[in-house]
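Project standup — Tuesday

K.O.: blocked on the structure for the chain from last sprint. Re-posting the sequence here as requested.
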Amino acid sequence: MEFDAVYGLLAKSCGLSDPEYWSLVLIKEGIVTQKEISDQLCLNRQTLNSAFKLLIKKGLIRLEPFQDNQRSKRAILTETGQHFVDETVSKMERLEARAWETLTPGEQESITQLTLRFSAALKQALEEEKTNTHSSEDLSSQ
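H.V.: unblocked you, prediction finished:
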């Protein structure tokens, strides 16, 4: 929750909501469909759609259909959006890098390894819980 709070401050300092900010970050990185961004950020489609509408209204992105699939659209940074990303999001990435550099190489390695280990353990616990819940439901329906 501490990371969420700090990253929420980053978004707010740019005048954006969390979904708007992270959508711009992903669009900058080449992840351009609402489905891909929704999956990456674990956001429901309605929340992401609202964020996209605000980004369009602010003139930061536009939606264009793919040439081979007119139903699916990709988000493109407008000129204003590109400038905004270059000035604001990139600045935040530099601040993040500067904060990272305050850690020793050993601390950087430790935090990375512990975060990966904790994520894997939590994922496994969730999968086990899901399996146990399904097994209990199967038994109760018999």
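K.O.: great, moving the ticket to review. Residues 105-140 form the longest helix (36 residues). The chain has a mean pLDDT of 90.
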